[in-house]
Amino acid sequence: MGTLILKALKPLRHGWRRFEYGPATSLGAWFQAHPGAWVVLGLALSMSTLTICWLRAEPLSAPVRRFEAPRALQGWTITQPEGGVEALAQSIGETGLILLTAGQAFTLDPNPVAWTGRLTLENSDAWDHAGGEFGPAAAGGGAHLGRAPAQPGRYRLVWNDPATARQGALELLVLEPAAVRESAGNTTLTVCGEPIGPYLDPLKSPSEDVRKYAALYRPPTLFAIINAQTETLPLDEGLQLGQLVAFLDERAPDGRKIQTNRRHTDRTPVIPALVHKLTALRQRLREQGHTVTRFYITSGFRTPAFNKQIGGAAFSRHCYGDAVDLCIDEDGDLKIDDLNGDGRGDELDGLIIAQAAEDLEREGRVAAGGIGLYHWPGEHSVGSHVHVDCRGFTARWGQRYRNGKKEGFTWWRDTNAVGSSD
Fold first, then answer.
1. What residues make up the domain containing 94?
2. Is 0.85 topped by the overall pTM?
3. In 295-309, which positions are buried (b, 16+ CB within 10 angstroms) versus exposed (e)?
């Protein structure tokens, strides 16, 4: 399983200019684009790579290729028109995931161009019935042309390479574009008939940080629909699509909050930067000697209306789909595990998770964002959890209850961090 590293390149007249968006810790890969095209390369930390690129709007046609003798498959090149969504990449020998907008055209090329295998659409009837298109390019050479169906959902491409006896699959998650309506600076979205909003105007926020970074508070525009087919879709090891949405809470007769396994909505954005961050965080904690099969995610995406209902911050990153609250709960008792071995599950265990996330941000391995450490005692509390998001600027905070009162506290080591909230 590899972590996706992104690089953007713009072709120049006499070479390439390279902009680094993450540390290059994997094997290099080459790609030649048409003049004027933007290219994004995704490199997994393994011998396999998946290359994703966006090109400026141009006809879907297979490029002219030089003869190349068939070789073993190394990866795929996914080409989407300008405005396409970023893909999530995993090792080529395992299931990979590609995000597509409903109705969007794309090309898929094997790397190398000449390989000995075959690529087929597993559920072609559902794909075709929803208006999808997929097939080999007329020019041959292994290239395939396609158009995502109008119906959002989960589709699957299967491939096999008889030369190496390798086989695998590419999962295609088709996302639904939101209909956008703006009024008095606020934005309301409609996704498959469900209203989501309102998103408030960040320039009118009482928070100086939100006003300063208003461009980072645009509402999400593409949504996955969670149903029986998509909720178990693996985004990465130990992370499924259905975990990205906040669950409903109920109140016991005595007023205590009890978390349920029912989602408050079946619409959610899918933000690749968040998936990459959770992957890196899980790996870092494992390197430190902690057992992390999967994170226990206590809250994910919230619609603005639900976020307001439960008392969340007006500009909470949960509403933008790039935030989760999590802890480690390997024994399944719905409480944070005793990570430091002191016999208790409390904020000191949450601190281990928070500082690991902080280290990854400081090293430039993940997107900058907010990290909040919480400690809530009580029978129906997880004890301590950590908020992680990808807002695009550094923010840190801590909250805990002591003697029946909520108080803030400082836990972070980054002296340049901005104090904020979720």
1. 5-60+71-171
2. no
3. bbbbbbbbbbebbee
